[in-house]
Amino acid sequence: MSEKVVDFSKTSGKPIRCRAAVAREAGEPLVIEEVIVAPPKSGEVRIKIICTSLCFSDVTFWRLKVPPAYFPRILGHEAVGVVESVGEDVHGLTPGDTVLPIFLPDCGECTDCQSKKSNLCSKFPFHVASLMPRDGTSRFTDLKGEALYHFIYVSSFSEYTVVDVASVTKIDPAIPPNRACLLSCGVSTGVGAAWKTANVEPGSTVAIFGLGAIGLGVAEGARLCGATKIIGVDVNPDKYELGKKFGVTDFVNSKDCGDKSVSQVIREMTDGGADYCFECVGLASLVHEAYASCRKGWGKTVVLGVDKPGSQLNFSSFEVLHSGKSLMGSLYGGLKPKSDIPILIQRYLDKELELDKFVTHEVNFEDINKAFDLLLEGKSLRCVIWMDK
């Protein structure tokens, strides 16, 4: 990582004045302004962000007008940076270390974090957090002294941020920053869902509902796992050519199935149903369609998409009993950040995991609103935002 060496001794333990892109009102352009970032408290790390990428979850909560939306807020959660300073009781991290701040905590101490069966920390349960997890306060204030809300433990749309040590993963600085940041959320979620949650087997068949960045991450993960048929399902026919770059072998346009349902089409294509189905959009109706597309007996449906609050699924007990299928959720692709992310980074460095093709645009921090426009217009998969380039 070609980040120049910085002497952080002058700022350690002191408030830092820096730039941040602040969401002042729902759906309004972010405002680049100066903010004050407090020093880290016990169990916390202050990070100098090198670059951040825009995930659709940022857009979702930027638009949202009711809780868990809070304003003014510093959004952003896909990023890479270097440790500027650490608070008390922080071990294994020192200033200058290259790190990923990751929204899913990995404390390494609770039963879940010590088990290979789960990535859902019990000490710091994930929620759409707006403040620091240990004391429920903010480390950001504007120049008028008003507190600014955090976003899911990260808040990377700021030149400096404070993150709990449970949400910080030290990484190999050999990986370029504009690739490393992708592993903080979307790409890791998709790849991990195929690799860790579903455990896709060589020679298996996969159906992916929604070919956005997460769905294409699933395709990349399924390709790495050796799946032989990877079916992409989307309403945009252009996604087929794009999907081929990520391992998609077949395509179903859900608007062009005639009098058949998507699940009927997929069952015919796979001689009874796909071994693994992934819902990557966030619609209850698509979860049902994915479940119906799975093969009886061993089919596995994995839910990755975030639906609106209160959305319900409705399955008949007869169907569940007689089909023998399984349905599961996958937060952050089932990955345990501190042990699995270094593996993905090594696979990138070994030229196995192809992160490069996910980056379609790069902009300077001053142009962060352009990144939002590109994503909303459907022109970008991942837009990398450089803090200082």
Automatic annotation (TrEMBL):
Residues 213-346 form the Alcohol dehydrogenase-like C-terminal domain. Residues 42-171 form the Alcohol dehydrogenase-like N-terminal domain. Keywords: Metal-binding, NAD, Oxidoreductase, Zinc. InterPro entries: ADH-like_C, ADH-like_N, ADH_Zn_CS, GroES-like_sf, NAD(P)-bd_dom_sf. Its cofactor is Zn(2+). GO terms for molecular function: metal ion binding; oxidoreductase activity. It holds the Pfam family ADH_zinc_N. Homodimer. Belongs to the zinc-containing alcohol dehydrogenase family. Class-III subfamily. PANTHER family: ALCOHOL DEHYDROGENASE, ALCOHOL DEHYDROGENASE-LIKE 7. This is Alcohol dehydrogenase. It comes from Cinchona calisaya. The lineage of its organism: Eukaryota, Viridiplantae, Streptophyta, Embryophyta, Tracheophyta.
